[in-house]
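Holo model, glutamine. Inputs:
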Amino acid sequence: MHYVVVTGGVISGLGKGTITSSLGHLLKSHGLRVTALKIDPYLNYDAGTMNPYQHGEVFVLDDGSEVDLDLGNYERFIGTDLTGDNNITTGKVYKEVIEKERRGEYLGSTVQIIPHITNEIKRRIRAVSSKDYYDVVLIEVGGTVGDIESMPFLEALRQLNREEKPGSVIFGHVTLVPEVGAMNEQKTKPTQHSVKALREIGIQPDILFCRSKNELSLETKKRISLFTDVPLEGIASISDAPNAYLVPDIMEREGIVDFIINRLGLKSKEYTDEWAEYKQNLRNPKERVRIALVGKYTELQDAYMSHKEAFLHVTGNTGIAVDIKWINSDDLKNSQDKLSDVHGILVPGGFGYRGIEGKIAAAKYARENNVPFLGICLGFQVAVMEFARNVLHLGDANSTEFDKNTPHPVIDLLPEQEGVKDMGGTMRLGSKKVLIRPNTLAHSVYGKDEIYERHRHRYEVNPAYIDAFSSAGLIFSGTDEEGIRMEIAEYRDNENMIASQYHSEFKSRPLAPSRIHQHLVMRALLFRQRLLEATA
Ligand code: GLN
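Output:
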């Protein structure tokens, strides 16, 4: 087994996740079998209970695990489906150790960070690596070196390096090389200090991923090599890229993957770039559309990471670029002026009442002006509520999530959620089969009778209202296997609206974009062209 560990230094937000994912993509493109795991040094058991403002979007896997958004990047870049075991948190590690202590499995000993916690960390890493046959396991450590929280993990990785076959663990460290002064001089001191901090805990990096605005000069690389003992070929200049999918090209150019393959003594194949055309479209899109993303975490775009990615996947496959207009739903409640210049509207998932009225106003605006609309999860529920209020004239129609005593609970708690008190990991989660009704828009979009999509919700369309909705023109074209849970909604004879209870953004991949995101973009282009014709 071979491991490539990626740690971070200097500051957070340098794109460690993108670098790890890009490595995974390139190793795979060299014919190697790769998986990736993320270490998150926080005490939460998983990401599910965290506000998206803290760490960005909560990503959902097939097995229903709620994980860090970096796992989404690994899946997209490596083209694989991961499980909850690929996200190790301090919470999971401590919970396990304390439960073992209570069962008496350490009877007689004092339970300590070293060796009990570090052993549990290594056990979890090895459990992932032995699950399948892999050439390389990538391990990304969250946080920055020097954080108290990540210390036990780095110590465990130091031990892993001593215990595994010599030369089978490689440490890569992501640092920042700022450019200062009128001459844009590249400064190596932060990198030197960061490597020093790593060495103090017994880890000598083999690779440095140096983030910088421009490419590192040879002199800068030599200077870094001299001070850090990292060989010159192990120093990769990772300059800014317009989007994450273009980072692998930078790495390939730096020869860093060949360096890793040689260092680990791996037998690899010739590099085949299956993204060539995809990247070409990303670099030179032929068309553009503007799509409003109406949400309540719009100040932090990472909260909607997988939607942004899904749109990039659409661009890579169609050549239509998407300019996202970020709109805080609170701003739409009284005036929808902000929507007057967009060609499509996306209302994504969310929780809680704040911002709901603005989202309902956006759905109403889309329906009345026939603007292409896509609703996802809460956005699906919003479209249903809007239709109930304004077409069925059920004035106070609502979700019981927001108004327990609404006279028209068109969105209601899933029956199995009745009595559920714990908030962690208790929603309807993960991959479920969705049946698609023939002769519907959904069927023409998917071209299939059934699909599997990922879920994360507690509420659903109240079955008592389904007949009323369909007689008025809102039809449910996708359901769960039993046909009792509504999964897809559309307006009869109108291709400009589709909404899903599932999160299609989570399974969108570079060469297989979310079908409904792609549909929104195609309709938006048509909408834009008609607009241009009308004003010509
Ligand atoms: N809050 C809604 C529910 O729990 C929608 C959830 C979501 O958008 N992920 O059903």
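Residues 349-351, 377-378, 401, 456-459 surround glutamine (CB under 6 Å). Residues 515-535 form the longest helix (21 residues).
Archived with the compound record.
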